[in-house]
Amino acid sequence: DAKSRVVVLLTDGENNVGDIPPLEAARLAAELGVRVYTVLAGRFVYQEDIFGREHATERALDSTELEEIARLTEGKFFRARDREA
Fold first, then answer.
1. 50 against 72, higher pLDDT
2. What are the distances in angstroms from CA 26 to CA 3, 14, 17, 40, 50?
3. Sheet containing 77-80: which strands, arranged edge to edge?
4. pLDDT of 32 over the 90 cut
5. Can you give the C-alpha Rg of the chain in angstroms?
6. With 0-12 CB in 10 A as exposed, 13-18 as middle and 19+ as buried, what is 40?
7. Residue 44 CB-half CA count within 13 A
8. Among 11, 39, 67, 85, which is most exposed with the fewest C-beta within 10 angstroms?
9. 19: Cα separation from own chain's centroid
10. 38, 25 in Cβ contact below 8 A?
11. What is the pTM of this model?
12. Cα-Cα-Cα-Cα dihedral of 38, 83, 58, 79, to 10°?
């Protein structure tokens, strides 16, 4: 009975669950009238070295899917490249 339903998705952009693809979940949220506000936190893709330690690469994070999730659900996309953002 809420006036609105909102999800704030704070993420590094990596899908590590795999049960439901993110865009399918967004379509389900839209059907239920849930707006998703996506926040992409970070600047670079991280990759493990041969010792299992993660290091930033030169590749920038891809925001395409998170922007689409926000659009499908009539939410908004935000990008946080540093702690202040």
1. 72
2. 20, 15, 15, 16, 36
3. 5-11, 34-41, 77-80
4. yes
5. 15
6. buried
7. 8
8. 85
9. 16
10. no
11. 0.78
12. 20
CA–CA dist 42, 80 (Å, integer): 6
- Has residue 57 got a pLDDT over 70? no
pLDDT exceeds 90 at position 28: yes
Name residue 56's beta-bridge partners.
46
Q: Which of 11, 17, 16 is nearest to 70 (CA)?
A: 11
Q: How far apart are CA 41 and CA 14, in angstroms?
A: 11
Contact 31, 17 (CB under 8 A): no
C-alpha closest to that of 62 among 51, 84, 77 = 77
For residue 77, list its beta bridge partners. Answer: 38
- For 77, other C-beta atoms within 10 Å of its C-beta total 18
Distance linking the first and last C-alpha atoms of the chain:
33
Asked if residue 45 lies in contact with residue 57, where contact means CB atoms within 8 angstroms, the answer is yes
